[in-house]
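Lab notes, practical 5.
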Amino acid sequence: MAPRSQTAMSDHGVTTLRRRIKVVVVDDSALARQLISRLLRSDPDIEVVGIASDPYSARNIIKSTNPDVVTLDVEMPNMDGISFLEKIMRLRPMPVVMVSSLTLRGAEITLQALELGAVDFVTKPALDVERGLDGKREELVAKVKAASQARIKPLGQPYGAVAPTPIPARTGPLRGTDSIVAIGSSTGGVDALRQIICALPPDSPAVLITQHMPAGFTARFAERLDGLAQVRVRQAEDGQRVLPGHVYIAPGDKHLRLARSGAQYHCRLGDDAPVGGHKPSVDVLFHSVASVAGGKSVGVILTGMGRDGASGLKAMREAGARTLGQDEQSCVVYGMPKAAFNDGAVETEYSIQQMAAAILDRVQSLA
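Output from the prediction step:
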């Protein structure tokens, strides 16, 4: 019999039972395994059905328990987390949440994992692991729950690590290069952004991005994209001039806003409070673009859980911007685009494979 959690009432008043989310925890640290398991078990909708110290024992546990989600340490003995994740995504695709250290190496491996198909990641501190993980209970539980609803495809299919086809520079100048493109994303956004940014031609308009990601990861993410794309990709700096052919990514602990001085656009970074629980916040970016660029902008909302960006994208549309949303089929989690679409903020939805071309078409229409 499948494990059960608390009862819930259906629309017809009949009591039904919800199946709990089955999770396997894989980590080489005994303390981390104990803490992660305890935090997950504290939620009545989650059941930890297996614990493993290395990928080899994890493989057998996964086969016998058929979990809904796996939490996976990025660095382990015998077989590293990336190699094991690649085997999972090729042979037995399932939602995986990576557990990563707050180090440069940890950031690099985590970004590789997200490109291979991991749904999301949670960071653990190098020191005082118990207190650090205790403070991440809500984040861990929320990401495991979101992962259980994620769309997972075998490695090599649309949002796996397949190189997007770059769009060549146009024979004539791209009209609208004085426009601004603003993009917001969360869960599943690392690979979605890679597909868009790596397809943009070198003469594309300036792009500002808010991706939900901790400090320490966004700079490395920008570096990885910069090495792959035709445009220049940078972590945004306060006061930095916004130029065509460049992409600016919000730092993981600052809000990114668009500002204007005369005819020039600039990045503004803010250390103000989180908005809707997020810092950086997509809504903060979108509202600033609506105010500063208005009808000379394109707003794009991508995969992610929650509704960050919905009100800001609606403000952009009301200010005359063109607004796009990622379609449900290509999203890892169709939360943020759905909220924006339901609020009337999205003009048209596109698959992630079509999005770069759709953005450029909208830019042309602004000229």
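Observations recorded by the TA: The chain has twelve helices and 16 strands. Residues 1-16, 158-162 have pLDDT under 50 and may be disordered.
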